[in-house]
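Go through this pair.

…
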Amino acid sequence: MSKSGKNRNSKSADTATGALNEPPLIRWILTGTAFLFLGIFLLVPLAAVFSQAFEKGVDAYFKAITEPDAVSAIKLTIIIALVSVPLNMIFGVVAAWGITKFDFRGKSLLITLIDLPFSVSPVISGLVYVLIFGLQGWFGPWLSENGIKIIFAVPGILLATIFVTFPFVARELIPLMQAQGKEEEEAALVLGASGIKTFFRVTLPNVKWGILYGAILCNARAMGEFGAVSVVSGHIRGATNTIPLHVEILYNEYNYSAAFAVASLLALLALLTLVVKSIVEWKVKEETVSQ
């Protein structure tokens, strides 16, 4: 290595070391700013939700979350999550496998399309489905003649939820599988394993925690989605209302304690998601260290 190169590396190392040796005051300011930000924008709203939910007592709380419309909203939210998350897991694994293990034309376009729901407003995606499947949409007349209802019904909610959540699993797996490379799969193929057998015996086990991590995030978004679901649901009480839509209706009716009681279920889901996410991250770190 040239003398100038050594000087540059030495200077970079000194800069990095300097960044890690900031005075204690700077460290306290940075750490305190992070905790202050989280406290204001995360913990205070979370505490306010539970405070308002139990404002009228435990009996009122349980009455709010067990009344028929609330139970219907909870059931529909769970059904939507139970259908959309497995479909997104299948899509995410297939898309990530194809993108990371094979070279083909249009790969960049496929990656861009996977990211599309992150850049498009959920309301816009809901309107797109109304344009396609609504009564005045492209397929609306045919669907109406055949007695098929998608918009303002459960299928429309399912389509909108799948659209806004399908990047989560794929986006978690693509960088993970790119980092793992193709060496293990190539070794299995050289030893005589078929492509499918290699996928189930080598590829899938290596990304199992990534799939679970993506599914957790996907499930949280599916159960909490509001914008796209609001457009295609029709807000029919006891039929097409999910938990977020039911909360909105209760709030607009000035039934604040019931609204916050039902909203607390989503808050509990968020907390549960954080706990499971932390466990998955701990397991991934443990397996990485053991290897």
